[in-house]
Amino acid sequence: MMSIRNNLVKSLSISLSLVFALVMLIIDVVLDNWVDKEFEQSLMSKASLLVALVSEDERGVDFEFSSEFMPEFEKKDNAEYFQLWLGDEIFEKSDSLDFQLNNSLPFIAVSEGQKKIIETRLPDGRDGLIIYYAFKAQVDTAKKSRFDTHLKETGVAQPTILLAYAASTEDTEDILIFLDFLFILATFIVVFLVVYVVKNKVDLGLIPLNELNSELKKIKISDENLKLSNKNLSLELVPFIDSINRFIDQNKTLYEKEKRLTSDIAHELKTPITELMNLTEVVIKFPQDKIYQADYPQQVLGISWRLKNVISNLLLLNKLSGNGLPKNDIFDYQQIIHSLYAPYEHRIRLKFQTELPPLQNNLFAVETVLKNLINNAIQYSPKDSAILLTLDSVGELPHFSISNEVSEALSVEDLENMFEPMWQKDISRSSSENVGLGLAIVASLCDAIDADIKVTLTQKLITFDVLFH
């Protein structure tokens, strides 16, 4: 089973760790390149400084070097090296080379004015870089004309000097390796911290959900004040709590309806069963009474039919609840209405729109809806009062309407409860013919065939409207 907590911790930890590792990698690469560039720049700067110490006049080339200011060129350990070639001959080299078995730097030809940096192993065995630079020695401005004259008189060109300057890169590499180690260590530490912080933050964020879960476990549908509080909750959970409260209210309403329906069913079944028991006891007590004996079968049959009617309607109501019905039948519903109202034609007034097309729907459902509405109007209207039955269309949709006077005054609450199973205006349930299932079946059938039904009350005139889709 998928865990939101584990997935959230894993995804956040991995994504944040990868981002940090990528940033560290970029910084490491940039830093390595920068250090290498700075080291090469320092080589060129030192080489330029050595080049500046070389001068030339008519007497020859002079190298004004002083180890007092550059002690790195005369040390035995951790030394730096330089060497100058005048043509193919070694002109000058650092004292630090004298301490090594290989006391000379390798010669590499370089064009005048060009610089070349190569990786090499220094005479002392360390890894390093050598920069080669070919140049002509500088001539003092005051002696420039005399030196040019000297060159013309002797017919000799100013010689090209080659400088080789070498320095170790091991210290720099050690620093870079140490920085790499620090970056890797920092990455692991940050990954651990990210996992720890994310895990704790997720756990902290899930506390309201855990508390909500604990509160939901304590809920009982039978509680009077059944509602979850949305106080002290995060903003994201408020709609969730409101939805749960609406769901609880709906289930509470259904629970109350179910309790009432169970009580009503028990009452409706208990009454005829009690009648059967009383009637049987009387017959048993007076076996010689011919009147009781003669009426007994007929009365038992009537009570049995009433029981059958209640049970059949309950089964039909249960079957229709939440289920749709196919609408594959094509029929003339005007003919159905004529057949249904025929027994009551002395009371029903028809108002039909002409040229209504056939209806494609569920024949059983439409017939049952119309029959129950007509029977309801006959049953609950004053005797011999007129009942208006209208059949027309709203747009292209067939519309059925039936209106009648009410025998008893009805309230808005009565209209709201009218389609509830087993509901009766007569609280004492003194009627032996009706059990309050007819309109509930009508509502369920309308829902099953996607028909709209509504009831309105104008003074003492009640109207049921059904719009078939």
Automatic annotation (TrEMBL):
Pfam families: HATPase_c, HisKA. The keyword GTP-binding does not apply. Signal peptide: none annotated. InterPro entries: HATPase_C_sf, HATPase_dom, His_kinase_dom, HisK_dim/P_dom, HisK_dim/P_sf, TCS_sensor_his_kinase. It catalyses: ATP + protein L-histidine = ADP + protein N-phospho-L-histidine. The keyword Transmembrane applies. The chain crosses the membrane at residues 12-31, 175-198. This is histidine kinase. It comes from Psychromonas aquatilis.
